[in-house]
Design brief:
alpha+beta; globular; 17% strand
């Protein structure tokens, strides 16, 4: 038993010594990560090919699996990783896959992952991608919507809130709930006249989701507009010859 434990320790030490340095374009820093393990790859594939009837739960669980992998593999620690944006999270996952194998084929077509790797190094996000603010005017006052990229910590908090609701609601209601929760992730703060609503309060996620649903629809429109800018930048990183590289089961199973 001691010999086996020693072997496991040596394996862990080997992974810690052979780190991958990855550039995070939003944070503007280079961080070090342990390579993807077979177990982590298996978890990603398991979540994506889950044959259970609850597709929603499988999807949200997968998102949290991605988050956990970045936290576990970050040499600089979980606190640093938790502060990374959702875009940098995808960059890290891509980088770990790219470090394992630079080759990728989709429908018999070879995709040059070197292009994505170069995009990550050279394409910097505009200020409107990092954060934005919009003032909506009404008869009795204003609503200021402040948006910003969600961190891994915030993403996980809202995902957990969705999972709590999955078992108690019908699928149509859950899809709407996810849409609202996803929008909440991108909201930093909403100010209604002189009242601030802090959407970074992880302990109050359920109430924040409910609060957004009671605000005028123009608030959600402002958030959706910001999310469109974010996705456009995100897609520019992962596009090769007009083909978007999706970080799905096919991408990770081809290692």
């Amino acid at each position: 038993m001691d010999t086996f434990l020693d072997t496991l320790k040596q394996v862990e030490e080997f992974a810690a010594e052979n780190t991958v340095a990855l550039h995070c374009p939003v944070a503007g820093v280079e961080l070090n990560f342990k390579p993807l393990t077979v177990e982590q790859t298996k978890l990603m594939l398991k979540s994506q090919i889950d044959t259970s009837s609850d597709v929603v739960e499988s999807g949200v669980t997968l998102a949290n699996t991605y988050n956990d992998i970045v936290l576990q593999n970050c040499i600089e620690g979980k606190e640093t990783a938790n502060g990374l944006s959702n875009i940098d999270k995808e960059v890290v996952l891509f980088g770990l896959r790219y470090a394992t194998d630079t080759k990728y084929t989709v429908e018999d077509k070879k995709v040059d992952l070197n292009v994505v790797n170069e995009n990550i190094k050279t394409l910097k996000p505009d200020k409107k991608v990092i954060s934005a603010s919009k003032t909506l005017k009404f008869k009795t006052g204003n609503i200021v919507v402040e948006t910003s990229l969600p961190t891994i910590a915030k993403d996980t908090a809202y995902n957990k809130a969705v999972l709590r609701k999955v078992k108690s609601k019908k699928i149509n209601d859950i899809v709407i709930e996810i849409y609202i929760a996803e929008a909440c992730k991108y909201i930093n703060k909403i100010t209604v006249n002189d009242t601030d609503i802090n959407f970074n309060d992880a302990a109050n996620v359920d109430n924040l989701v409910n609060a957004l649903q009671k605000l005028p629809s123009s608030v959600l429109n402002a958030v959706s507009s910001y999310i469109t800018n974010v996705k456009n930048y995100r897609n520019s990183l992962f596009t090769v010859e007009n083909q978007l590289v999706e970080l799905n089961s096919e991408f990770f199973s081809s290692i």
